[in-house]
Amino acid sequence: MKTNSLLVETRALSFGFGPRPVLQQLDLQVPAGSIFGFLGPNGAGKSTTLRLLLGLLPAPAGTVHLFGHDLARHRRAVLGQVGALIEMPSLYDHLSGRENLEATRRLRGLPAGRTADVLATVGLSADAHRPAREYSLGMRQRLGLALALLPDPQLLILDEPTNGLDPTGIIEMRALLQTLQRQHGKTILLSSHLISEIERVATHVGVLQQGRLAFQGSVAELQRRQQGHAQVVIDTEDAARCQLLLPVDLGGAAVLGPGRLGLPYHSPEQMAYLAQQLVLAGQPVYALHCQQPSLEQAFLHLTEPALA
Amino acid sequence: METTLTFAQPGPLTQLRRCLAADVLKLKHTPALWLTLGSGALPVLLFGLIFFFKGQFLLKPGENPWPAYILQSWQTATGLLLPLFVVLLSSLVLHTENKAMAWKHLYAQPLSRAAVFGSKLLVLLGLNLLAQVAYAVLLVASGWLLGLLRPALHFADFAAPLGAVVPLLWHTFVATLGILALQYVAALWWRSFAAPVAVGMACTIAALTLMRWDYIDWVPYAAPLLSLKAVGKGLAVGWALSTSGLLALGWAAATLLLGYVLLGFRHEGAAR
Fewer Cβ in 10 A, N or C end of chain B? Predict the structure, then answer.
C-alpha cells in the first residue's frame, strides 16, 4: 500500500484500560476509496480502535493520521470530513427522526437541505415525523447511518452497522455502502462480527486478534495467503468405499458427507491424478473441484492459535 | 487517490452558536422544559390560593399587603424549592444526552469541548433565569389578581413593588449560580440522573439544617435563602451583593474552571 493513498493510518498505536492492554502496536492502513472490513472476535479491540480514530479516547502511545493529518493536532478539521456510527446509534427518543438529524445538522452548520437528502438516502422520509422511540431497531440503525452521512463525509466509520437489521435491511445496507463507495468515492471503515457481510462488500480486510493485526490487505491478498488451506472436494457415490479402494490416495481424506471427500489441495496435477485413480477404481466422479477458503475460514485460520 | 482537506474551521463563537442551536432543539418535549415552566408557576399558584382563602389572617389590616405577600412567597421558594429546582434541572438537561448515549456522537463532531461545555451551561443558565423571571412575573400578576378577586386584602390599593422585585430577582439568581455550577459539573462527571440529584438534595437539606452556623455563607446550597438578607425594611432592596451572593459567584467560577479541567480527563471509553 502506498502511504499517500491512505485515508486512515495508525502508527504503533497502543491502548490499555488500566494495566490491561487492549491494542498493541497497531499499524492500521485504510486505503482511500476502499471498503475496509475490520474483523475480530468480541473483545479484540475493534470498537476501541474506532473510538481512538475519532479522538473519543486519547492515544497514550502511537499516532492516528486521518487524511494524512495527525488527529491529535487537527482533530476538528479532520472530523469535519468524517461521519461515524459507533455501536448503538445516539438517538433522542423524544425527538422525531427529522429533528434528530436537525440537531446534528445544526451542530455542524450544514445546509438545511441535507436533512431531507439523507432521509431519502436511508429510506426514512415517510417516517421522519415519527418520534424516534417508535422506530424499530432497523429504523434506528438507518437513522444512525443517516446521522453519519449528514456531512457528506469523505470517510465513514461504521461500527456494526447491520446490527438489528432484517435480511432485507442488510441487503439494502450492503447496496447502499457499495453505492457510496463506487459512485460517490467514499471510503468506508466497517467493523462487523458478520464475516459473510464483510466478505460481500469489503475490498480490504483487517483482522484484529488480541489487540494486534493478524492480517490487513485486500480480500484477494487474504485469499492468496490462504492458498495453503485450499482443499480438493470430490463428489462421488460412496465416500467410504473410495477410501477403502484407494487407501494411499484417499486414506487421509476427510469425509465431508456420505458421497463427499475433502483433502488438502497441492496442484492441478494432483486433481487429474485423483480423477484418474477414481475412474480406474470404477467409482463415479460427479464433481471434482478446488475449494478456496472463504473469508470466514480465513478468519478462523488467522485467529485459530489464540482461540485454541 | 488524492484527498483534499479544508482546514477552514468555524471560530469558537460559531461553534458555541451551533451547539446552542442544537441544544435548544433538544429541549423540545423534555421534562426539563416543563419543570422550568412549572417551577415558576407552581409556588405562585400555591401561595395565591393560600392568600385567597386565608389572606385575612396573614396580613395586618390596613397595611400594604405587597411586602408580606412577596417576602413570604419568596422565602418559601428560595429555601427549598429553588435549590431543588436547580438540582433537578441540571440533571434533567444532561440526562437528555445520557439517555441517548449521545456523548460519543457529540464529541465525534468537529466541535471543541469548550463549545459543548459552554452551550449546555448557557442552556442551564437560561432555563434557570426563565423559571425565576416567570416566578416573579406570575407572583406580581397573582397579587393583581388577588386585588380583583379579594378587594378586602387591599392589593389593588397599593402599587406593586416592581422596583424591589427586579433587584430581588438579581440576588436570587446570583445565589443559585454556585449550586448550578456544582450540579452541572457533577452531572457531567457522573453521567447519571440519580447520583447528582441525590447529592444535591442531601446538600440542600444539610444547608437548611446548618442555617444558624457561623460559616453558612460559605455553603452554596444555602445562598438562595440567604439572598433575602438583601431585603431591608418595607421591601427595600439594593443591588450590592451580600457575602453569600459573592461566595456563590466564587463557587460558580471555581467549580466551572476546575470542573472543565477535570472533565478533560473523562473520555468516551465505555458505551455512552
Answer: N
CATH number of this structure's domain A231-291:
3.30.70
Burial degree of A22 (CB within 10 A; 0-12, 13-18, 19+):
buried
10 Å CB burial of residue A196 (0-12, 13-18, 19+) is exposed
pLDDT at B163 over 60: yes
Asked if A68 contacts A155 with a C-beta cutoff of 8 angstroms, the reply is no
d(CA A97, CA A137): 13
Best mutation target, A107, A110, A145, to test chain B (most B CBs within 10 A): A107
Which of chain B's residues have a Cβ under 8 Å away from the Cβ of A1? none
ipTM, interface predicted TM-score of the complex: 0.89
If you average pLDDT over each of A191-200, A214-223, A256-265, B169-178, which comes out highest? B169-178
The sheet with strand A231-236 has its strands ordered as A254-257, A260-264, A231-236, A285-291
- In this predicted structure, the answer to whether residue A307 has a pLDDT above a threshold of 50 is no
Domain with CATH 3.40.50.300 in chain A: 3-218
Long-range contact pairs involving A123-131 (C-beta distance under 8 Å, separation at least 24): A123/A172, A124/A97, A127/A97, A128/A96, A128/A97, A128/A98, A129/A96, A129/A97, A129/A98, A130/A96, A130/A97, A131/A93, A131/A94, A131/A95, A131/A96
Which of B2, B14, B92, B105 to mutate to probe the A interface, most A CBs <10 Å? B105
Say if residue A259's pLDDT is above 50: yes
User: What pLDDT, on the 0 to 100 scale, is given for residue A231?
Assistant: 86
**Average pLDDT of every residue of chain B:** 91
Chain A residue with Cα closest to B6: A77
What stretch of H or E contains A213? Answer: strand A212-218
CATH 3.30.70 domain extents, chain A: 231-291
Which site among A17, A67, A92 would you substitute to test the B interface, given the most B Cβ atoms closer than 10 Å to its Cβ? Answer: A92
- Asked if A36 is an interface residue toward chain B (Cβ–Cβ < 8 A), one would say no
In chain B, domain spans: 12-263
Contacts of B100 in chain A (CB under 8 A): 90-93
- For chain A, positions 43-62, list CB contacts with chain B under 8 A: 48, 51, 54-58
Q: What is the DSSP string of A146-210?
A: HHHHTT--SEEEEESTTTT--HHHHHHHHHHHHHHHHTT--EEEEE-S-HHHHHHH-SEEEEEET
Q: What is the CATH number of domain A3-218?
A: 3.40.50.300
| Each residue's pLDDT tens digit, A96-144 | 999 999 999 999 999 999 999 999 999 999 999 999 999 998 899 999 9
Helix (H) or strand (E) holding B35: helix B31-58
The whole-angstrom separation of Cα B95 and Cα B75 is: 30
